[in-house]
Amino acid sequence: MRWIWIDRFLEFESGKSAKAVKNLSTAEDHFRDHFPGYPVMPAALIIEGLAQTGGILVGEANQFREKVVLAKIAKTRFEREMFAGEQLIYQVEILMMRPEAASVLGKVFVDGVQTAEAEIFFAHLDQARSKQMFGDHNFVFSGELKYLLGLAKVASQTGKDSPG
Fold it and tell me: What CA–CA distances, in Å, run from 112 to 11, 87, 94, 147?
């Protein structure tokens, strides 16, 4: 199963906002069971895509010195279901940034129409505390997500959309 719920960043403004895209394909495993003959993207995975976009934005604002952990989803609202074949645009902006925590407002758009919204809170864990709780591995700020962020930064410097 794929655990990265964004395909690439479209825009990234350090410490302020980010925009990412997720193309929903019937080839993804979750559509087989959710629901057979009616391929709906699970709401939890849509929220996870917003959280990954927001978590990278928050982490990058602190140069990834601390682990950013999803602490709370304060509120969510879905206007409609999202289906295989659609393209989701995740738009996230930082609402509050403190040494111990941050919050973001995330919105999801399909064809320019807002389809969902969530306010997400993150906790910042220093390296010593996070190592005790989670070990050395930092699953959010390594691997594919960090690579996607690098592509977005290169694209913003050249004035082009990130490759996809």
Answer: 16, 10, 21, 27
